[in-house]
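Illustration: TruB pseudouridine (psi) synthase family member 2.
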Amino acid sequence: MTTPCIRMFRRLEGLFCVYKPPGVHWKHVRDRIETSLLTGVNGTPQRPLPQVVKFLAQPGAGNDGSSELTLSAASVPVLASHPLVSGPEFQRIPVAVGHRLDAFSSGVLVLGVGNGNKALSDFYKTPATRDYTLEGEFGTATDDFSHTGRVVERSTYGHITQDKLERVLAMLQGANQKALLMYSNIDMRSQEAYEMAVQGLLGPEGKSAPILKGLRCVRFEPPHFTLEVQCLNESQKYLRKVVHEIGLELRSTAVCKVVRRTRDGVFTLQDALTHHHWTASDVMGAIQQYHSSKKLRKSPHTQTKDPTIQSRGEDKKTESQQSEISEETAVSTVLHTLPVH
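Result:
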């Protein structure tokens, strides 16, 4: 028979995400969440202790005035099942971390609990696109490409304009899109490439070098600027180096002041729990929300409705029109993945 603690733990199994603040190592985040979940699960109200019938000796007075022991039946709790005797039911709750963030980065950090660790392993292997916001500053170069590193060079930045910055970003994005096609190991003239382009699934097979799928400037106030990046197989150090190389391409220098992950696959900042909500009840709610959204994403593909029942009047597009639209989508996708000269 399952206990209340076990039932609560089963409701906690799955994936969720938190917002990792800057300056905190991801291990500290994981350990704090694990401790909070242990407290919540072991603090679940327990069932009453099982009772057993025992015969207890009670002194009594006999007819001749001598004291005798008499036995009386009584129901007493089994203290061996008491938490103060047996200890907490859960000594450890396995909490795993997906795509990690270094100590100086912040943003979406995906975690798994229980059997969610297997789902997290599958999630880690998929080529999911991750989005970042990078805040940089022109005029300085450091040994680790961050604003906290040792300054190795200072330069001017008055000649930099937003138009020049966007041209460098377009050049960098074009080179990465060419690498994306190379790591895909797919003949772009094949039917397989066509079908993957229609579905938007072109990407590297397994692990590859970091690839920037998208790169644009959202704020330009020299010497400060902000970039939005969509990438694969990246590290935060690589993203800081990208900011450094952008500065060099503009005949200046640049350091990265902020690295913030805003999306990891299907998880966004709106789904992330802040440190005030790293409790068992809030984590349970986030996991249930993830399961619900997962079912909604699968529902269009699991419908069993027979398409032949649909009347021709309800079908707005003919088969030839649909094929033309799919072909235009595929061609557009392939063209956008060609390098920019």
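Reading the tokens back as a structure: The longest helix spans residues 162-184.
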